Amino acid sequence: MNFFKNFAISGSGMTAERLRLDLISNNIANINTTRTATGGPYRRQVPVFAQQLERTRRGLEGAGVRVNAVLEDPSPPRTVHQPGHPDADAAGYVDYPNVDLNREFIDLIGASRAYEANAAALEAAKQMAGRALELGRG
Known about the structure:
Blueprint: H1 3-29, E1 45-56, E2 59-72, E3 78-81, E4 93-96, H2 101-137
Antiparallel strand pairs: 1-2, 3-4
Helix pairs in contact: 1-2
């Protein structure tokens, strides 16, 4: 049993979920950002995860997860009638980010639970490695 591989797999999962948590935090922080440097409202960001593979004597084996890309959600912005807003169009409508607080909280719960599961797997592998070392001493 390769404990270091188990550590690396759990670590990659924790790193990926931490990035997901960072993106969720950024989405929530920009929920009312109507103007960005590129123009228009902020666009919700989502990570794209991909399986990380490793070539071994037995063929390809799973070696964790990696973040393939961070994409902008293509859904349309929320439009709100606010004629006095500085970013209102001629009809008085303002485009707000396509960030839905409910969706972000659901994603937040999923990401935090996935992070915790990876942390638990890492701790279990660490305990098994420690017990294996104790058996070797005896």
